[in-house]
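Students often ask what a holo structure prediction actually looks like on paper. The answer is less mysterious than it sounds. You provide the chain, you provide the ligand, and the output is a string of discrete structure tokens encoding the 3D arrangement of the protein together with nicotinamide-adenine-dinucleotide.
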Amino acid sequence: MQVAVGKRPISSKNSLSAYTSCKYLENRGHYFLQSTSMNAVADTALFFAKFLYYFLESLVFKVIPKRKKDVAGEIVLITGAGSGLGRLLAMHFASHGAILVLWDINQEGNMETCRLAKEKGGVKVFTYKCDCSNRKEVYRVADQTCKAFLPAMIKADHGHLVCISSMAGLVGTTMLSDYSSSKFAAFGLAESLFLELTMQQKSKIKSTIVCPYFIKTGMFEGCETKYPLLLPLLDQEYVAQKIFTAILEEQVYLLIPKFAYFALFLKQIISPKMMIALGEYLGVDTCMTSFRGRAKAELQAETERKQQ
Ligand SMILES: NC(=O)c1ccc[n+]([C@@H]2O[C@H](COP(=O)([O-])OP(=O)(O)OC[C@H]3O[C@@H](n4cnc5c(N)ncnc54)[C@H](O)[C@@H]3O)[C@@H](O)[C@H]2O)c1
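The corresponding structure tokens follow.
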């Protein structure tokens, strides 16, 4: 027997159920498409709402300074604490009552930082000789201090990772290809960790990624800048203060000087030839030609002292 319902011939009970299933699937498919597009609309609306909210929030924080976190009693591990930024940051944390764990390959410099930190009121300061480029050594020293850091931080859902990258970690730099690639890697690692931790809703583990231009610590002794107003050689105290404030305010990115934000934006929109012209204008292409570095500078100063 054939029964025609609508345009489909139905010959038996099975066919009827097949037809019903088809209709059901068709409807489900339609419903699915409908619900997917509704989801997309809802998703997009939610995204725009969040985007606007975070935009307004960032504007508000430009005017009203963020509440600074308290680091008293916190354990702060600083690698490369024996001089420059590491030492200055140790001073800042010491004067705010943090417990300091200082690592450096140079024991003498590290001991001097320890002495200065204690003078600043550091409650507890521990120093360790460690070559951070040696994985085994890092784990050996970590065992004596806080074991492996990130898993412990994740477990406690508490902590703050600070990465000192560089402007050379955002823009390739002439005669600095080795340094620049390590700084790009440091930036990539820190930013990826920040995103992973956010995704895993480990929102209490904060990240700060710092990208400064040349700082007068001695590391880039001899390097010059053509237009100090746009790209000044930075004062180390100023940079350390900026970094410390960024950590306390839980700022994720810190580029110093401010012109760096504009330069980074320009890099995305101008042609490579325009970028080279800009680099030439700012003298970035030749800034390393006069590089002497700390060792040579110290040797030269020593020779000059002896000649006097
Ligand atoms: N000075 C700059 O112009 C400048 C610019 C941008 C970024 N940075 C970055 O800022 C950070 C601090 O730089 P700084 O100018 O204070 O340098 P610095 O030379 O004054 O201090 C670096 C410290 O790290 C120690 N160190 C070096 N290799 C080590 C190792 N393998 N293991 C353990 N300790 C080691 C040194 O003994 C020294 O005490 C660095 O990561 C640097 O790349 C510096």
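The CA atoms of residues 220 and 293 lie 5 Å apart.
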